[in-house]
Structure formats: C-alpha cells, structure tokens
Amino acid sequence: MLEYPQFDPVMIHIGPLALRWYGMMYVFGILSGWLLGRYRAKKPWNKLTPALVDDFVTWAILGVVLGGRIGYVLFYNLAHYIEQPLKVFAIWEGGMSFHGGLIGVLLVIWLFGRANNMSFPEMGDFVSPLIPPGLFFGRIGNFINGELWGRYTDHPFGMIFPGAGTMPRHPSQLYEAALEGAVLFVLVWWYSAKPRPAGCVGALFLLGYGLFRFAVEFARQPDAQLGFVALSWMTMGQILCIPMILFGASWLLYAYILKK
Is residue 64 one of the residues assigned to a domain? Predict the structure, then answer.
C-alpha cells in the first residue's frame, strides 16, 4: 500500500495572498493551452494567428467555467440545486463537470469560428491538442485536494485518502492524469503534426478521451449522490462518454473509409 502524501494546500504565500495548489493547477492548464496554441498558430496550415489565440483563450475560459458548472448542476446534482438554487453560484464549494465544460468549449469554438471565418471542424482540430495538458493539471489538482478518489482495492498501489475511510483506494486521479492528460496529449499532438482530413483531430480527441475515461471509471468511486446509474455498473461519467466515443469513431470511419 502506498502512503498518500500530506500536501499543504497552499503552494506559496505572497504577503497576505495565499496561492493554493488546486487553483494554480487551473492556471497551469490554461497557460499550457495558451502557449501551445500560439506555437500551433505558427504552422502554415493553420488559419489562426497568435493574436487570435490570445483572444480565443479568454472565450475558452468562460466556456470552461460556465459550461463546467452548468454541466455539474444538470448531470450530477440537479435535485440539490432545485432545492437550493442560489447554491448554483457557490463555485468555491466545488462542483465542475468535464463534459459540461466540453460543451461550453464546443459552443465557444463554434461562435469564435463564425466570427473569424473558420468552420467548426477547423476550429475543433486546432483546439483539441491544447486540451489534454489542462486535463493533466486538473487531475493532479484533484489528487492534491484528496478528492474524486477511486474504489476500494487490495493492490499494493492503493492509498488511504483523508476523509475516505480506512480502506485503501485506487488513486484514480493519477490514472486519469496519465491517460486523459499525458497519453492523450502525445497521441493527439502527434496526429495533428501534419494536415489531416477535416474534423479528424477533434474526432480522435473525443474518441481517445471517451475510451480512457470510460475505462478509468471502473476504478473511480461513483458520485455519492448518484451511485451507478445504468445496468447496475455504469456511472454517469461512462454514460456521458458514450456519445464522445460513438461520434469520434464515426467521424474517423467516415473520413478514412466511407468518404473514399
């Protein structure tokens, strides 16, 4: 059994200001996506310029925050927020959904593309490789915060998380950081290194994330307020990944086989 590190939630003090690890993971994720976007914008086949990337990042932050919060409210805890609607705005209490954030970013991609004469597939292909580093840092933030831990395990890499009882659990946050963050980034970045059929970079991202998240959910503890939501073993995270898997696989199949 591995010992869970006892993190100081504060990364650094600057006078009266305390920078917390969890919040800084979001900063690192946004910064990494921004810098990678400016680098990609210099490739000759991309229509976005570094200056447009700067503008897009602002739009994307709004899409992630608003979409992530609304998604959590609708997908994971709607009854609670119907009873206490003002709690919807209490973001500091936690509660963000990746799938909601993705929907928010997709909406931003569509709007920003229309405003800059780029199609939705073109924008999606440009943005998709920029997302996994943010997912990596986000999951590391979950691990440091000791939240979203995994199910019970007797494997030697199990950990006892604070507030999660006395039984060792899968460090599922690290599994997600590795798969949805590091591995997915390498895969999508490599694939996007040269021109591909329209929409295929985005489709590969959706397929890869959907498969990785679906697999890790078998080690992740289901949300307490929901439990298993289908077939006595499927979680909400897995349900929300199915459309991503189907759409990503279908687009790639169409682009490489059916379109010929």
Answer: yes
pLDDT tens digits, residue range 213-239?
A: 999 999 999 987 778 888 888 999 999
What is the pLDDT of the chain when averaged over all its residues?
Answer: 89
In a domain, 203, yes or no: yes
99 CB burial (10 A radius; 0-12, 13-18, 19+):
buried
Residue with tokens 């973001």: 91
> pLDDT band for position 205 (50/70/90)?
very high
- Residue 5 falls inside a structural domain: no
Q: How many domains does the chain have?
A: 1
Cβ count within 10 A of residue 153: 17
Q: What is the tens place of the pLDDT at every residue in 104-124?
A: 999 999 999 999 999 999 999
Establish if 4 belongs to a structural domain.
no
Parent domain of 252: 10-258
Annotated binding site: 139
Cα distances (angstroms) measured from residue 187 to each of 161, 190, 209, 238: 31, 5, 11, 21
